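Chain A, query sequence.
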Amino acid sequence: MRIIAAAGLLASLVVLGIMASQSARADILPVPPFKGNDTGGIIAYSMATQTDARQVAADHCARYGKVVKFLAVQAYEGGYISFACRWVPYGAADRPIRTLY
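Chain A, predicted structure.
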């Protein structure tokens, strides 16, 4: 029984040693300048200074038949603009318009 416990302890120490020797790399996966789904999304502030962020968000939400509501702006390099896609308000006659140009 002691041999099994010693082997388990040795194996866990080896695994911990391997994990400690590897560096944590958060920069491996690139962050896209625009990311969203049917509930909303984010736009990188650097992209928002080059394009019309309102139009990008409105076109994205119109794909799902929804309208855009902007939530927050982090107005610095590395910041994001967040938005939510909401259902079309009651009383609206048509679906949201999506521009195709």
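Helices lie at 2-21, 45-48, 53-62. DSSP finds three helices and four strands in the chain.
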